Amino acid sequence: MRKSSCRRGGTPGKTEDIRMKNEEEASERPDNTAFTQQQLPAWQPVLSAGIIIPGFLIIGLAFLGIGIALFLTSQTIQVLEMDYTGVEKDSPCFRCTSPSNQTCTCEVTFSLSTLFTGPVFFYYGLSNYFQNFRKYGVSKDDYQLTGDTQYFKSPRDVCFPYAHDSKNNPIVPCGAIASSMFNDTFELYQIINGTKKKVPLDGKGISWWTDYNIKYRNPLPVNGSFASAFDGTVKPINWPKAAYELDLTDPNNNGFLNQDFLVWMRRAALPQFRKLYRRITEGDYATGLPAGNYSLTVYYNYPVLSFDGRKKVVFSNVSWMGGKNDFLGIAYLVVGSLCVVMSVVMLIVYAKFKFSDDDDA
Amino acid sequence: MLRRRLNRLCGGDENRVDSRTIYVGHRPCPDTEAFIPSKFCDNRIVSSKYTVWNFLPKNLFEQFRRIANFYFLIIFLVQVIVDTPTSPVTSGLPLFFVITVTAIKQGYEDCLRHKADNEVNKYLVTVLEDDRSVKKESEKIKVGDVVEVVEDETFPCDLILLESSREDGTCFVTTASLDGESNHKTHYTVQDTEKDLQALTATIECEQPQPDLYKFVGRMHIYKAEQEPAVRSLGPENLLLKGATLKNTKKIYGVAVYTGMETKMALNYQGKSQKRSAVEKSINAFLLVYLCILISKAVVCTTLKYVWQSKEGQDEPWYNQKTQKEKDTNMYLKMFTDFLSFMVLFNFIIPVSMYVTVEMQKFLGSFFITWDKDFFDSEIEEGALVNTSDLNEELGQVEYVFTDKTGTLTQNNMEFIECCIDGFQYKHRDTQSEVDGFTMTDGVMNKLHQKAGQEKEELFLRALCLCHTVQVKEPGSKEALTDQVDGIDGILPQLEEERGFIASSPDEIALVKGAMKYGFTFLGLESKSMKIKNRENNIEEYKLLHVLNFDPVRRRMSVIVQTKSGETLLFCKGADSSIFPRVKPEEVDRIRMHVERNATEGYRTLCVAFKQLSAEEYAMADKGLSDARLALQDREEKLIAVYNQVETGMSLIGATAVEDRLQEEAAETMEALQGAGMKVWVLTGDKMETAKSTCYACRLFQRGTELLELTVRTLEDERLKRQEKLYELLQEYHRKAVQDAPPVKAGVTRSWSANQDYGFIIDGATLSLLMNPPLEADASQYKSLFLQICQNCTAVLCCRMAPLQKAQIVKMVKNSKGSPITLSIGDGANDVSMILEAHVGIGIKGKEGRQAVRNSDYAIPKLKHLKKLLLAHGHLYYVRIAHLVQYFFYKNLCFILPQFLYQFFCGCSQQPLYDAAYLTMYNICFTSMPILAYSLLEQHIDIEILLDNAALYREIANNAMLRWRPFLYWTVLGIFQGLLFFFGVRFLFSNPALQDNGQVFGNWSYGTIVFTVLVFTVTLKLALDTRHWTWINHFVIWGSLAFYVFFSFFWGGIIWPFLKQQRLYFVFANMLSSVSAWLVIIILILLSLLPEILLVVLRKPRGPHSRQKKPSQSNVGGNQSSQSSARPLLMRTFSDESNPVI
């Protein structure tokens, strides 16, 4: 272990002790405490080879262990990624890319050769999309989103130019983030003998618990009607429907508490990101997607080509470490082996120096 | 300052002329033109800087004059004006904090000053006004008022003494609060003034106020009815200074001549010029580098932003459109505001808190010096004193030590050793063993060879008894007027026969005591008559006619006395060089040998001469002296001329030798300093021989040291003129010491190998010749030759130096190549100039008053304390502050670098990576305390080891820890870690689904992970550097990490109503729920610290090795010191053997 030497405070000689007693009354005499004399007992660690080498070895081995575990776990995670932007002419969604096509659906098919173990998580991904623009990021009104109807009439300045429509009606929810909410929708079917069997998609539990339960609040219904709480406001320009119509089937998933909305409102860190769309946890598919052919119907609404963006869908299952990420496992393996190698090198160096030390002594 | 200038102005035109006229008691005088009540300052002392009204603007103005504060103010204003990424609070809050704390501190200090001012200004004094005594507040005293002062009161303004309650028209004064001299000084009333002050009509003409405490010239015109006005000269002996205290005198009356801010005390109350440490210069250099980094970062980002935006679709994607206003803004204006925004975003790289921390470290750190009990001296009951805390680290960087000799190297505790009367040596022994018939009451005079004649002996002893300015301390109520024993500081009552004496110079006391041992006792001076008890116990009385005061130019003093029988005698004592030319040459030869031998033995020698004045001679001298004293202009010069005229044709009667004992451990201290690589220069006003022997005794010169002498004596040459000889010698020495010598390794001055040591000796006259040669062109060449020689010598002795020359030498070395750090140490008023000149000035709380202490940066009781002050405190402070500075730059570099890198991933949109709270708190709370604790408590090497092994001091010489190399190392480390933090998390976020429930993390999670890694890494980096873990370090390091975690939970755990955006809500908690985040944090911390650990380990083989070696290495020095301390200070034999003096 570390060679630690503890020092006792002060080593006053006998004469000094006596003198001190004599002059304790002297007001000018400095306090003779360990602190004032800079003699506080101290632990003086010496990073000697004796502790460093085994330390490195232990850390290295531990890291190797974690690394292997991480790497193996990461390998077991299945991921299926499909770009559906429709840039290539032969891609199924190519026709939806023309601006003239207002409501467009396209169908992406894929087949699984083995069981895709559940629960399967269904993500959508965007690239070259800067949710981390500074102006974009601040362009929302948290007071609105906590259901404070006072702020419906007068959105914060930061929401400009997404605060009012052309008739100067206030937009709720205001701001660039809300306005640019991702609005492609997907339906997944398994094709069994030519017939489509709908795979149930679970839209709950995709957003942070605290976002859903605490941070975002809907306005209280006015006269029992949720929609009338939004009276005098208009929907964001790009939205096909107003906030109170986001999910008419489930009042708990409506308005600002719509989980797709919440997911979108948590800004991505990097311009290439994915967000959780649905989970596949129900019915026959609770254990995963069995091998077979599938068809994904895309209601193609969201334009990305203007800024050279890409859209994709990702199916993935997760482990204790989250989604598939080889980086962490590899990093641990590298650092772990580095530590082990270093400890061996140091052992050799140290042995050499130790001998020379003995020679000196 | 401003106030003072204003006050000057309020004196009006009166001040423009060279002298002022004062009407005593405001009574108009006949024969002058119309009585104009002149306007002078009132007697208000204003030492405070602020008033209630101007405090805020003035204080703010002064604070923002500091470049750093101004910079932060600009950043703050930019944040307020321009739409910037971070709220103005992030930089406004720390700035506000710093400014407020400073303002409170300064306000408090000023409050104390106001209080002190008021105490002085509202003090009630008695003023004689129209035949009545009126009590007045001190501030209302006007020039011309007649003021009454009673015993133990301080004078409220500068007064001319008119009347004293003592019969002889004198009063006693201590000026302890002015110049620290605690002895009683005698001041005199103006001669022949009326006893009845009411009837006195007089004007005083005197010079305008000037700060020199010891100079005053004036003239008093006394008008009497139907008589010619009498004129009396006024000198410093008539002037009572504000701040001095009346002693031993019941009361006095005086007329105010200078009041308020024009008093000499107020004029002397000037703050010393601020000294700045070399570390501060390094900080400024680093700051410049970081400013460049900052600006280039901002430029890069701005450029990239516009390059990136020029691509189609990037500038304004449909989801992030600009407002109309933004679209309309001029592109260049936009670029400029973008640039400013980036500056604001990255400005944290230059932290406000560094200045605060450095200041706090210096302020708090200096307490350890005052607290150190090793600096406590039981004799004077005082410890070290720190006058400025700005220079702590400079103590660890000293390269040149300039030391005074008397009182610093030596104790200034004089002891009469022997005397030589008429060529015969008399040595005093305490023991009575060698009695040879010369035994007196309490001393033995041991005549070694032969006795001088009885008459000569007695004349010599009388001379010793009479020729001085010593006062006898009155032990009881000897004098009718003295009704109490006033504390004569520092001198405890002694035995009755060991009478207490008070004198301005300790050798005078030694001489008087010496005479006492031989039977002649000085009993005291009473109304101009000196009493002596001679060997037969008879009282002899002499009338003291004149004292020709000592001054350093003449280097002698004389008294003129009249014996009972009416003979007028002049006794003169002084340095041999100043006496010998004034006596008969044949007398000199007999005594010179003794004087020189005594000098080489390290004694201070004085020669005593006398002369009998005939009546005519005396009359002439008396007139000359009186005239000169009356002169208004050039009084000094005239006096000296008269002195020189009187002090001629004397006959030499003997010489004295007084031993000035070495200070405790003076030699060990000097050795340690030299071992630490410092060059010690002794600057003294003393004789060369005496100084040289002190140098030998202190082991500055060793046995093998070859002395290179450049003195008046060596310059004497038949063939050549002095100037040419000087050049020749310089050349020769340069060849010897510089060219032939093997190149000296940097920092190593004293090599223990066979290398020849050189010592250099120069005297004042030669120095002035060297500094101001007749040909201007030679000056720089001489100087550089001289400097080069000196730099290659182990020790340099400069003797016969005037105070200003001392400062000149210090200045020359200070400004030489490489601008080495200089330290001056001295104890007397004559050292003040060099103390002020050097980088670090150290005062010794010695016996020569407190002036040196007051002007010093640090004051210590004894020379021996210098060793610990430099080797331990200085070393530690330097290491601490250097580490503090480097660490601060490092931690802010790796703090801001990820933020910079993030700009490449957010379209250079100035998106901050960290939350505003983190940006603000990082330097204030999360990482400030550990480094502060480190910089106060770190002892990378134990104090004992530092003291034992002076060579360790060399390791940090030349600002070793703040050079560009270590700075580069820290910068590279910061960059490495910053890159690691950012890209480590970047790769992790290639899949932001980091939780086991598949949910994704956003940008604030990203920033928080980076920030967590950052805080832990920089704190643990400090932990790795800490070699001395006290409980405080543990508490602060682990405490601040815990505080970070606690704060993050707290900050993210509540919806803060005052925040417009709840960005961090539960971000930290969510982060901790992700295993991947944990794992990435751990690996990044480890990976960042790995190089550091490896470096420590790889350096290790040398580490313990050298540490084990340290004791053995120090044995080299240790052996020597033990060997040398074992033998008594045999300086006689030592110097005789090693250095036969001519």
Please give a structural write-up.
The complex is a heterodimer of chains A (361) and B (1142). With 361 residues, chain A is of the alpha+beta class. Chain A has 2 domains: 51-77 and 323-361; 85-115 and 127-267 and 291-309, no CATH class. Chain A is 29% helix and 18% strand. In chain A, α2 (49-76) packs antiparallel against α9. Chain A starts with 13 loop residues before the first helix and ends with a helix. Residues 1-26 and 357-361 of chain A have low confidence and may be disordered. Chain B is α+β, with helices and mostly antiparallel strands. Among the domains of chain B are: 141-268, Calcium-transporting ATPase, cytoplasmic transduction domain A (Distorted Sandwich); 352-368 and 872-1097, no CATH class; 385-409 and 666-739 and 757-860, Rossmann fold; 413-428 and 455-473 and 499-660, 3-Layer(aba) Sandwich (Calcium-transporting ATPase, cytoplasmic domain N), CATH 3.40.1110. Helices cover 45% and strands 18% of the residues of chain B. In chain B, the strands form 6 sheets. Chain B has a 10-stranded antiparallel beta sheet, sandwiched between helices. Chain B has a 9-stranded mixed beta sheet with strand order 14-34-33-32-15-28-31-30-29, with helices on both faces. In chain B, α7 packs parallel to α28 (865-902), α16 packs parallel to α20 (688-697) and α32 (964-988) packs antiparallel against α36 (1075-1099). The longest helix of chain B has 38 residues, at 865-902. The radius of gyration of chain B is 37 Å and the shape is elongated. Classes of the chains: A alpha+beta (361), B alpha+beta (1142). Chains A and B meet through α2, α3, α7, β7 and α9 of A and α11, α32, α33, α34 and α36 of B. Chain A: Residues 1-33 are annotated as: Disordered. Chain A: The chain crosses the membrane at residues 46-72, 108-126, 330-351. Chain A: Keywords: Membrane, Transmembrane, Transmembrane helix. Chain A: This is Cell cycle control protein. Chain A: Residues 14-31 have a biased composition (Basic and acidic residues).
